[in-house]
Specification:
This protein is of the alpha+beta class. The chain has 16 helices and 8 strands. The structure holds glutamine.
Length: 388
């Protein structure tokens, strides 16, 4: 008799696990196009997210390390005390704290989304062949990185590769720019605009990027007019985002290309791994190796002070604070994201990130996956996103 009961229990566990492991397949038709389109069994619990975010905010808000970027003059004037953290899960639970409504320039984080647009248009093989994906190990604006590489390939996350990526987008310069802005807005789930003062300030001082574009011409690695490509690139870097919008853009990547709030597919699902791979190799420029070592999340920084990190299937953590380190990455944003990542077991290189603890595996796995599973079950009955 107890065998029968055990067998029955096993059957129930299997059913539940199947349901838990393949929730997206099961939910796709039912709630496609709604805010609850995705339902991840590995999305974190609301209380854990809130605790991690609050602790990170309190711990680092007084940090005075780093210095605002000043090679784009207007960035030097941004209040260095601004600090915000945003966390959004793939099932659209949102957490934010601090100066999360402040609009800062997206800067190099834009590179991620122009890459996504180029991939949507051309597919991964063409983009890989025309741009490349090698870590340069050099600063983001390095000329040597272009000249030294025997094949002169680059990485879409550093300036030369990013300007070349812009050149791949189809249409006139205006059409490219309009497409890029509309695409970023879809990823953010809200209409974004360019910060005019940032654009003017950067356009007046971007001789370095123009030199990079000229070098790309020499090596046949730019695919449209170089001056126009730099101009569109400068515009895309000047797009204003707040920390919540940036977190949503990251959550769209985490959610396999579907914006978790609007339910709109923005990025083709098959391209997500390529984008995250490029972010992992050079998202934090010449400190990307250290970031991978200590944090273990694909991420992208911008000299405006923003960083967004993506935990595939789970969500995104964005932070904003203007003072930067030597490599051009926000000091406080790095610390805050690292803290949150460790609290939530987000490190993609760690088996813990999928529930494999050092100790008793089944118990740990159950603990890690159950909340998501319960939420999925709840979602199926209410089809209403949880908010916190
Ligand atoms: N617009 C900036 C530049 O081209 C972007 C650099 C960055 O954010 N690292 O220099």
């Amino acid at each position: 008799m107890s065998r029968i009961v055990k067998g029955f229990n096993l059957f129930i566990v299997c059913c539940v696990l199947t349901f838990s492991i393949f929730p997206q397949t099961q939910s796709r038709n039912r709630v496609a196009g709604t805010a609850a389109a995705q339902c991840s069994p590995v999305a974190p619990r609301a209380a854990e997210v809130r605790a991690a975010g609050d602790e990170a905010y309190m711990k680092f808000r007084g940090d005075t390390g780093g210095k605002n970027a000043d090679y784009i003059p207007v960035l030097a004037k941004v209040d260095p005390k601004l600090f915000g953290i945003g966390i959004i899960s793939t099932d659209n639970q949102t957490y934010s704290r601090g100066d999360v409504q402040y609009f800062f320039s997206i800067q190099s984080i834009s590179k991620v989304f122009t890459l996504a647009l180029a991939l949507n248009e051309l597919g991964p093989d063409a983009v890989f062949q025309k741009i490349g994906s090698e870590a340069t190990g050099r600063p983001f604006n390095s000329v040597e990185a272009v000249a030294d590489m025997p094949t002169h390939t680059g990485n879409p996350m550093v300036n030369a590769g990013a300007i070349a990526t812009v050149s791949l987008i189809s249409g006139t310069a205006d059409e490219k720019w309009n497409k890029i802005l509309a695409f970023y807005s879809q990823a953010a789930g809200e209409k974004l605009t360019m910060l005019d003062d940032v654009y003017k300030s950067e356009a007046a001082t971007n001789q370095g990027n123009r030199a990079l574009a000229a070098l790309l011409v020499k090596y046949n690695r730019i695919y449209a007019d170089p001056e126009e490509s730099v101009d569109v690139y400068t515009k895309q870097c000047s797009v204003g985002v707040n920390t919540k919008q940036l977190a949503m853009m990251g959550a769209t990547l985490a959610n396999n290309g579907v914006n978790p709030a609007t339910g709109v597919r923005v990025i083709k699902a098959e391209n997500i791994p390529y984008i995250l791979a490029a972010m992992s190799t050079a998202g934090l420029y010449d400190s990307s190796g250290a970031w991978a070592w200590h944090v273990g999340l694909p991420a992208k920084s911008g000299v405006g002070g923003g960083i967004v990190a993506v935990a595939p299937g789970k969500g995104a953590v964005a932070a904003f604070a203007p003072p930067l380190d030597e490599a051009g990455n926000s000091v406080k944003a790095q610390k805050a994201i690292k803290y949150v990542e460790q609290k939530l077991d987000y490190d993609v290189f760690s088996p813990r990130s999928v529930g494999l603890g050092a100790g008793a595996l089944p118990a740990r796995a159950r603990r890690a996956h159950r909340p998501g599973l319960l939420r999925c079950l709840e979602r199926r009955s209410t089809i209403r996103p949880l908010r916190f």
